[in-house]
Amino acid sequence: MEKKDTMALVDKGLLLPLMEEFYTIQGEGFHKGTAAYFIRVGGCDVGCHWCDVKESWNAETHPPTNIELIVENAAKYSDTIVVTGGEPLTWDMGPLTDRLKSKNLKTHIETSGAYPLTGDWDWICLSPKKNKLPVGRIYDEAHELKVIVYNKHDLIFAEEQAALTNNNCILYLQPEWSVRDKVTPMIVDYVMKNPKWKVSLQTHKYLNIP
């Protein structure tokens, strides 16, 4: 297949630049502790300096993969499918979620919201970033807001973002892993003073689970 034909299928969401796919335990947020199949899609231009999967940024390094194959693999392992990145909303997620739903699979997404929301989702984890703010209706649709805290100024950003979300959105503050010893006490203190927030930890890292 010629490159232009391949890219046309990527643009339609029928092929996706697949970085990796794996079955594991969800380590963060509301569904922590739940077995889930993760689909990590390449491509992201948000550019978080503390990102722990920077190898996902360049979509061209990850093979355009037929979503039929992705769904077939996912269905073998779990009924909960988490689509993450990179930034998955770089691509049209509609075709992927349509096929996941056709197999009665639960669809979850982890996104910065930097691109318009596409796809049919049972759970939306919105993790906004200062570099490239969320767009469109995702504030109204998000089930949880997860703000990564690297320093005290991120608490101000968290409140600004929380003010934009819907009333049912669950609010989480999560320490950035490399500075967790420094910022976790600050987060705990903040949540105790502002109990509308909850603490999210990367429990999979503490448990040494991929």
UniProtKB/TrEMBL annotation:
Domain of life: Bacteria
Pathway: Purine metabolism; 7-cyano-7-deazaguanine biosynthesis
Residues reported to bind [4Fe-4S] cluster: C44, C48, C51
Binding-site residues, S-adenosyl-L-methionine: W50, C51, D52, G86, S127, P128, K129
Cofactor binding note of this UniProt entry: Binds 1 [4Fe-4S] cluster. The cluster is coordinated with 3 cysteines and an exchangeable S-adenosyl-L-methionine. Binds 1 S-adenosyl-L-methionine per subunit.
Signal sequence extent: none
Pfam families: Radical_SAM (PF04055)
EC category name: lyase
Alphabetical GO biological process terms: tRNA queuosine(34) biosynthetic process
GO terms assigned for molecular function: 4 iron, 4 sulfur cluster binding; carbon-nitrogen lyase activity; magnesium ion binding; S-adenosyl-L-methionine binding
EC number: 4.3.99.3
The entry's keywords: 4Fe-4S, Iron, Iron-sulfur, Lyase, Magnesium, Metal-binding, Queuosine biosynthesis, S-adenosyl-L-methionine
Cofactor(s) in the UniProt record: [4Fe-4S] cluster; S-adenosyl-L-methionine; Mg(2+)
Cited function: Catalyzes the complex heterocyclic radical-mediated conversion of 6-carboxy-5,6,7,8-tetrahydropterin (CPH4) to 7-carboxy-7-deazaguanine (CDG), a step common to the biosynthetic pathways of all 7-deazapurine-containing compounds.
Family: Belongs to the radical SAM superfamily. 7-carboxy-7-deazaguanine synthase family.
Protein name per its UniProtKB record: 7-carboxy-7-deazaguanine synthase
Origin species: Maribacter cobaltidurans
Designated gene of the protein: queE
